[in-house]
Amino acid sequence: MFKHSGNNHLNMSGLLLLIVFAFSFSIQSYCQAKEEDRLALTNVNIIDGKGGAPQNNMTVVIEAGIIRDIFPAGRKPLPKDYRVIELKGMYVLPGLIDTHVHLTGGYRSPEEADALLKFALMGGVTAVRDMGGDAIEIARLAENAKNNTTLSPRIYFSALMAGPTWFKDPRAQASAHGQTAGEIPWLKAITPETDIAQAVSQAKATGATGIKIYANLSADLTKKVTAEAHRQGLKVWSHATIFPARPGDAVNAGIDSISHAALLIYEAADKVPEEYHSSQSDIFALYSKTPANDQKIIDLLQKMKREGKILDATLYVTSLLAQRSNPNAAADPRLKWTYEVTKLARENGVTLVTGTDGMGRPGRDEVPNIHQEMELLVTMCGLTPAEAVTAATLNGAKALGVENLYGTVSKSKAADLLILRKNPLENIRHTREIYAVIKGGRFFRKPN
Ligand SMILES: [Zn+2]
Fold first, then answer.
1. Lower CB count within 10 Å: N or C terminus of the chain?
2. Is residue 78 in some structural domain?
3. What is the pLDDT of residues 31-90, one digit of tens each?
4. What is the residue range of 435's domain?
5. How far is the CA of 263 from the centre of ligand 1 (A)?
6. At what angle do helices 295-307 and 333-347 cross, to 10 degrees?
7. Average pLDDT, the chain
């Protein structure tokens, strides 16, 4: 308990001091619990996540983690015994949702994961979707986040399924928690002989709420896994190209969201690699010779729109790859293509979310990369700032399947909120002007 209390008295020794500390801590937590239980945010401008204009000078009443009431300031008396937080001139929006993170994988210690999650929460991210990793470790992080023993966004995570040949990837074994990748519920090799119902129920037992479909699976097996996952109440989150299946095969299989706009190009390619690790040396030629508005791509985007499939474009990580491989990143053919296809997705009405595939680094980055993801959607892909906010909030909640409780500033929804000093609809970079974050009704003032 002390380890996670965040109290400065951590290093004190001696029984007496410990007793004094324990007593003061319990008083403090009692007061905090009471105070945090009931908040009234006053004179605040609401950007509700649904895309409309701000509602100015409102009061938001929060109790036990839920938004109980919203009304124009002064229309009703403030309820008694609430902590009143005056927010004149500020903006409240739903907490941000990063729909593509990897919290584990052998390269990050538990302490580093905690530091990253705290950085994310204080940077306005109130929920994340982990798209592949060590489910035992992620479940532990998710439990801590749920119990508020650490400062962390809510964590939703996936169990990964792929063809057996994919599991030679070193990332798989690094996430196996000492077991054998391919043979465990969160890293499961699927073949025509697999008992898919059992594989899905074991995946579900890890605490995962979605199946991540990754690579080296036929269109037929993708379809069978998807149908079974849906039958058991899980979402299906797919890599855009499941070599040798094309993006369109994943959509036809009924998956709920696909990640990495850059990979949509395989819908229009003459041939698709047989498997994930095949050489793709001609990849840049492919980006140069295939227009983003190729009819096959447009058909795919229109089908995604019709069937409500979500595109997790991951612009940030694609721009990072471009910076690493091309001294002139803006001219990188893959990056240019990715921006163009995401713009077309928006024009064709596809639901976009804000996965980063790289949350950011505490100490190096001022804010988590989701802010950059939102900015790229606006500056490079034609979204309005309001659309980018919706992508990062309501649409993120839809990707997780939790839009009934999260993703908008609405009565009866969870009080997961971001409070900004400046209007993000005037300039999307204002999402970085964070005054405070609220998660489950707990108020965290961000130090200046
Ligand atoms: Zn990823």
1. C
2. yes
3. 344 555 899 999 999 999 999 999 999 999 999 999 999 999 999 999 889 999 999 999
4. 2-92+424-445
5. 12
6. 50
7. 90
pLDDT in tens, 366-390: 999 999 999 999 999 999 999 999 9
- The C-alpha torsion from 211 through 142 and 202 to 253, rounded to 10°, is -10
Assigned token pair, 170: 């070193």
29 inside domain: yes
Q: CA–CA separation, 356 vs 39, rounded Å?
A: 32
- Tell me how far the alpha carbon of residue 194 lies from the centroid of ligand 1, in angstroms: 25
| Under 8 Å between Cβ of 124 and 434 | yes
Domain shared by 356 and 319, yes or no: yes
What is the total count of domains within the chain? 2
Cα 133 to middle of ligand 1, angstroms: 10
Q: Is residue 435 part of a domain?
A: yes
Do 102 and 193 share a domain, yes or no? yes
Amino acid at 309: K
pLDDT of residue 36: 56
16-36 per-position pLDDT tens digit: 444 444 444 333 333 344 555
CB 331 within 8 A of CB 291: no
Report the CATH number at residue 26: 2.30.40.10
Closest C-alpha among 52, 144, 63 to residue 393: 52
Whether 425 has a pLDDT exceeding 60, the answer reads: yes
Q: Are residues 216 and 339 in the same domain?
A: yes
Ligand 1 ion: nearby residues, β-carbon < 5 Å: 131, 357
Compute the distance between CA of residue 270 and CA of residue 408 in angstroms, rounded to an integer: 42
User: Tokens standing for 34?
Assistant: 């009471």
Six-digit token string for 1: 């308990």
339 & 191 share domain: yes
Within-domain flag for 283 = yes
